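User: Structure tokens for both sequences below?

Assistant:
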Amino acid sequence: MSAVDKAFHGLRHMIATGRLGAGERIPPEADLCEELGVSRGSLREAVRMLAALGVIEPRHGSGTYVSQLRPEDLIGSLSLTLQLLPLPGLLEVYEIRRVLEAHVAAKAAARATPGTVETLFSLIEAMEATEDPTEASELDHRFHAEIARAGGNPTLASLLAVFRARSRKYQVFTLPEGPELRQKSDADHRILATAIADRDPGAAAGAAEAHVAQTERWLRALMPPVEEEPGTSV
């Protein structure tokens, strides 16, 4: 085990066991280095790694603290690795996504407010009106994020947001078949939103699962290339 790994796992153990609680300031560098048997450089690298995962928060002029350790924040850090998945790996994740999207849709239907329903149909109308695939993708993300928010579990909403972020890199709507696929997708959105408006959890779950399964089939059949980030080149 390298010195950095030793420092990383040592700090993680302190947090996992509750020795360092959420929101607590971590001990001074000198004390930690002595206890863990590592150099300052190794400790600082371990702190940077934990900060990238959302576990530790360096605060300028104040010190370094354990984060609030909210599940939704820690789940969000999965994007660091999930964004690296190639399409075959992402397609394996779709089985999980089908289950979770159906679950949150059912919860959203049970808890739907007039405001939620109004937001969903407003987003659908905007999706149907735009001819810009990038805008359509953003609106699609907001539509599903609103359903997840209405489901009432921030951790599930965060996990699904991570899944969708990687999925959005593979844009089927920019392919020659795109217009036809978008029309089907928009129709699926209306079926799902209507089930939520009708406060029908079973219908909402079925519509959500069918919608995600359809997207998975498109990705498997068309194998679109990954979209570049704005301003990047290969």
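Moving on to the next sequence.
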Amino acid sequence: MTFRQLTVEEIGELATECGLQAVEWGGDVHVPPGDFAAARRALDTGLKVAAYGSYYRAGVSDRADLAPILETAAELDAPFVRVWAGTAGSQECPDRGPVVEALRHAVEHAEAMGTKIALEYHRNTLTDTLDSTVQLLDEVDGVVSYWQPSGGQDVFSAVHEVRTLEPVTAHVFSWGPGGFQDRLPLAERRDLWKPVLTELARDGIERNALLEFVLDDSPERFREDAKALLGWIRQ
């Protein structure tokens, strides 16, 4: 959800200028499902494809929608396809069965296409809490998790979530207690991100740390956030 107003080429130029190496291309604007020409333009930027960010809602979306998503991920050679675990939070979803079965179906078909299904870690889905996410990972073999902080999250719980989930990707941004409407410069949550990044690197497995929710959707703010992120990673 970063720079929907920019073209694929402009995003590639900006990310490269900032010294970033990877991108998650979104299926809503930049690389729609089935648009292989857009996928090739994305590859032409030279950025590593961290994932294909779909808006497939397991248990809600039509399963027929999955095929063009996976075909586009294959065109991108994306190692992960990000999906969403339904449309209701764990406390509002008494029957997890449809989401679980849809995810199992997605994992099976993704494996056949040479990619993996990754879960967005997000409110209003079955990954809205750590406990529910862990349960879902147990219920669906082969699915993996993303991680992102909640608004104003404390450091202890953030590190605990990352240590427990061992996410393949972290969406990196800083929010105040007001959440999405309370975006901050990334550097204002150095207290959170330094220990989280240390935890993400602890086992030596390569993971993606992807900038998102830039203040004012501003390229200049993005440059500042990228500088902060790379500085923390290199320390």
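User: Anything stand out in the second?

Assistant: The two ends are 28 Å apart (CA to CA).
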